Amino acid sequence: MNRKYRKTIIAGNWKMNLLPSEVKGYGEKLKCLAPKVKWCEIVICPPSLMLQAALKTFSNARIHVGAQNICTEAKGAYTGEISAAQVKDLGAKYVIVGHSERRQYYGETDKQVNLKVNIAIENGLIPIICLGETLEQREMGITLDHIRLQLKIALSGVPADKIRKVVIAYEPVWAIGTGKTATSEEAGEVCKEIRAQLRSLYGARIARSISILYGGSMNGDNAAELLAQPDIDGGLIGGASLDPEKFYSIILAANQ
Ligand code: PEP
């Protein structure tokens, strides 16, 4: 982490877990645990139909809310989709874009990720752009090439004056929900490369201001070591974000 230049962010991705009726209870517990956290920005990304409940619960706390996905299109006949403008209008601040589960299970392409990044920014949402290699790609030694390509496509058309409104999450696909975590060196190496590419695309000043998160089985035991890497500025947390106490142990680990 480098607090001098960029924000530390601890974001929870609930995926398709918890019920609307459980949001308030979760929120009260988290607010009790983390009443005045100043060392990082806390973000909760619930399923879309729980966004409103989460926004209400966290309205009196320093806890922000994000969606897990948005549509590539601005509005219209796209049954079942949710637009960036709708998410923004509710009051959410962030949106996860290009999560590997959307790429893997719903065939989301790099091109669609790019459209979502741009439409999120246009509507005043901060996209948390997920990048990550599969185990096969890591074993083939093409991790950095793959990440560079994903990043370049995701940011296509994003001008320099808007790029500060972007967060990157490095999430090795083989580490998500598997209990396998990248070592801090492995994660640190990829995040360093992401920053190097941001530097070559947007210059050093902008690159050093962008928060890069790690995601993939992060928990209270491994968070401190991962977050000690200079280019890892926070975490995107799935499983461990479902329990306020486990999530808070990661928030605490970010206080270093
Ligand atoms: C994620 O969903 O982004 C994630 C990192 O999940 P988990 O923490 O469960 O691996």
Provide an overview of this structure:
By secondary structure, the chain is an alpha/beta fold. The protein has a single domain, classed as Alpha-Beta Barrel (TIM Barrel). It is built from 11 helices and 8 strands. Strand 3, helix 3 (84-90) and strand 4 form a beta-alpha-beta unit. Residues 13, 15, 171, 176-177, 215-218, 236-240 line the site of phosphoenolpyruvate.
Write the layout of secondary structure elements.
Elements: E1 9-13, H1 23-33, E2 41-45, H2 51-57, E3 63-67, H3 84-90, E4 94-97, H4 100-106, H5 110-122, E5 126-131, H6 135-139, H7 143-154, E6 167-170, H8 184-202, H9 204-207, E7 212-215, H10 223-227, E8 234-237, H11 244-253
Parallel strand pairs: 1-2, 1-8, 2-3, 3-4, 4-5, 5-6, 6-7, 7-8
Helix pairs in contact: 1-11, 7-8
Bound molecules: phosphoenolpyruvate.
Phosphoenolpyruvate binds at residues 13, 15, 171, 176-177, 215-218, 236-240.
Question: Which characteristics define this entry?
Answer:
256 residues, alpha/beta, TIM Barrel, eight-stranded parallel β-barrel, 11 helices, binds phosphoenolpyruvate
Number of helices in the DSSP assignment? 11
Are there runs of 5+ residues with pLDDT below 50, and where? none
Report strand %: 5-15%
User: Which CATH C-level class is it?
Assistant: Alpha Beta
Measured on Cα atoms, how large is the radius of gyration? 17 Å
- What is the SS-derived class? alpha/beta
How many strand units? 8
Specify the overall morphology. globular
At CATH level 2, the architecture is Alpha-Beta Barrel
Outline the biggest β-sheet.
Answer: 8 strands, parallel, barrel
